[in-house]
Amino acid sequence: MTNRNRPHVLPRLGFIGLLTAVILLVVSGCAPRASQAAALPTLQPTAVLPQNTATATATSLPTSTPSPTATHTPTITPSPPPTSTPTIVPSPTAVPPGQQINGLTKDTFIILPTAVQNHIREIYAAGQEMGRRPQVFSKLGDSGAATPDFLMRFDQRTFDLGDYAYLQPTIDYYKGSFVHFGAALHIGLHATAVFLTDLVTEELCNDFEDMLSCEFRLNNPSILLIALGTNDESDEFDDRMEKIVAFTIDHGVIPVLITKADRHEGEDNRNNNDVRRIAAKYNVPLLDFDLLAETLPNRGLTTDNTHLTHYGPFEYTSPEAFERGYSVYNLATIMMLDEIRRVLAEPAANLQSTNYRFVQE
């Protein structure tokens, strides 16, 4: 038997089989094989995109911790110091005009520390037991003191104290002493001659009596203004001055040492320096007029560079009064007397002062 009677059997079977195979192939292509699916690993981001690892790490850093370059230090303003407790520097208290002369406060040229105040109270008390007159002072000096220009006119004529009106009670207290021209004043006097008996005024003093002893006996003062040194050029000046100071203290009289404006003994100013040293050594008042002279034209001296310039009006409301030698000299002396009067009226201080400007020997 031949196949000629079944010509279409095989082709039909072949077509059906082929179609079935194609369908199975398509279905199998849409689903992976179980073995392959089991072998496939689970993909992680770093495995798929290794190039994004750095980016992921950077974005994962905490935003609360900025990198150093992210800190904006230039825009930070430092906190100011506390203002609740500032350091306060007190402003200097203005010195009243009446408490200074030409810009120098009176404690600059009136040297009267506590130790000196206590000492003059002791001298004064001893003098009162000797009968010294409390409202009287005397003068010891050369031509610079033996002149009406030195203090005398405060008893002779009217004057205007201006800002220094507070000194009037002191002028009233010592009334009569300003005009007094005693036995201890002598033109050309030097310290080495004070205890010589041939210089005394014969009609006033006893035989063999020196001028200082004579003055103490006649005027009986409680204070002695000592203005010497212009005529002293010898090396004995300091020794003689010490003798004068010691003698005065022993007789119950308060010695007040006064420096001078001239440089008659030399530019080394040794006489004034001796006066300062002696005042410190004996704890007695010092009126340092030498310092005030520096504030005056030509140190307050006339053309002879020895005597002080004159001032007639005695008006301390005028600028001229503070440019002349005697007007400043007189004012400073009364200021010293005022300080002494106030000290003697007060009780003694308990503390001893060591604030002297010069070294004591």
Key structural traits:
361 residues, disordered C terminus, five-stranded mixed sheet, alpha/beta, Rossmann fold, 12 helices, single chain
What does this structure look like?
- With 361 residues, the protein is of the alpha/beta class.
- The chain has a domain at 99-184 and 194-344: SGNH hydrolase (Rossmann fold, 3-Layer(aba) Sandwich).
- It is 35% helix and 6% strand.
- It is built from 12 helices and 7 strands.
- The protein has helices at 9-30, 34-39, 45-48, 53-59, 106-109, 114-130, 168-173, 211-219, 237-250, 270-282, 289-293, 325-344; strands at residues 100-101, 104-105, 110-111, 137-141, 223-227, 254-258, 286-287.
- The strands form 2 sheets. It has a 5-stranded mixed beta sheet, sandwiched between helices.
- Helix 9 runs parallel beside helix 10.
- The longest helix has 22 residues, at 9-30.
- It is globular.
- 31% of the residues are buried.
- Residues 1-13, 24-71 and 350-361 have low confidence and may be disordered.
Topology:
Layout lengths: L8 H22 L3 H6 L5 H4 L4 H7 L40 E2 L2 E2 H4 E2 L2 H17 L6 E5 L26 H6 L37 H9 L3 E5 L9 H14 L3 E5 L11 H13 L3 E2 L1 H5 L31 H20 L17
Parallel strand pairs: 4-5, 5-6, 6-7
Antiparallel strand pairs: 1-2, 3-7
Helix pairs in contact: 9-10
Estimate what percentage of residues fall within beta strands: 5-15%
General form: globular
Uncertain runs are 1-13, 24-71, 350-361
* Overall mean confidence score, pLDDT: 82
What's the arrangement of strands in the largest beta sheet?
Answer: 3-7-6-5-4
Beta-strand segment tally: 7
Structural class: alpha/beta
Q: Report the CATH superfamily of the domain at 99-184 and 194-344.
A: SGNH hydrolase
Radius of gyration over alpha carbons? 55 Å
Tally the helices.
12
Helix and strand element order:
HHHHEEHEHEHHEHEHEHH
Distance between the termini: 170 Å
